[in-house]
């Protein structure tokens, strides 16, 4: 299984809820499609290594919220699930635990588990469901929540699970593609080729690229797909286009990029000759040091928000958070802020899908009425093993 993504305007320490609630005033890898690829897999570990990962209660507030997480997988506990549970605890410790009670439920990394966990949370009074993480589990949880008239803020990256009142807080490939295409067009790029693996994530990315390119009057000169081990053949066909293209989009995961980079080099393709573009999956040391990708651009949250979150997490729990832990942190922070400031309308569609949006650990975000989201993303340039921000993430969303 593969996992989710990030957000950005600064919420640091106890300022988290103030920023979240302030934004509300008028004047944030594989299942059926593209399951959460930004991170490491859910890894079963020995229970003795992760004490305390179990169903439970966080906080003591009058408003109850269900948090559905993959705390276990198979016979072991899940490091990802525990990290997200810890992030929820951190959120309430920074906000004060008097606004909400978080009912933590284990979905056992299965749809049946998600269904049972959601029903249990609702039976205990949950007004809002946060999670689950995996798309099939989100579908099961949403079915239960919909029947009870409760909204869901889930963590999958699969847009097919969304519907009215079922929102995704995750990092969507569509957002990465929109941002990088918009930036490339703003820098004068007019003709783009695509070199993409044959997998679900790339299917979504290629479709989004075609839509975004059409919106910016950018020509899609070629789309070359390849199977594992076949990047060289695709690169050869792209190289044959010569000066017909000025940009090359590669929606590939970090683990496969060394092979892709060798194929690019062998065919004379590098970012000095054609602008190479990618997604947030490239914010990884395995990609940033590859010679063929120096100068490449990709869309991603800026790193400062997660770094600050990780420092606070490490100080509290003595370990590093998984990358998706900010999803639990932001969702719980948001629920607490809305419970504090919005009264009886706190989890209504009007409030959750407010155009003004919210600030999270990874930046500004807002939910769309269809359940998707928009995020403030930066454009980063690969630079000698690190990144340089070439276009900062917005501090507010256009149209808000």
Automatic annotation (TrEMBL):
<protein>
    <submittedName>
        <fullName>ABC transporter substrate-binding protein</fullName>
    </submittedName>
</protein>
<dbReference type="InterPro" id="IPR028082">
    <property type="entry name" value="Peripla_BP_I"/>
</dbReference>
<keyword id="KW-0813">Transport</keyword>
<keyword id="KW-0732">Signal</keyword>
<dbReference type="GO" id="GO:0006865">
    <property type="term" value="P:amino acid transport"/>
</dbReference>
<dbReference type="Pfam" id="PF13458">
    <property type="entry name" value="Peripla_BP_6"/>
</dbReference>
<dbReference type="InterPro" id="IPR051010">
    <property type="entry name" value="BCAA_transport"/>
</dbReference>
<keyword id="KW-0029">Amino-acid transport</keyword>
<dbReference type="InterPro" id="IPR028081">
    <property type="entry name" value="Leu-bd"/>
</dbReference>
<comment type="similarity">
    <text>Belongs to the leucine-binding protein family.</text>
</comment>
<feature type="domain" description="Leucine-binding protein">
    <location>
        <begin position="62"/>
        <end position="385"/>
    </location>
</feature>
<feature type="signal peptide">
    <location>
        <begin position="1"/>
        <end position="18"/>
    </location>
</feature>
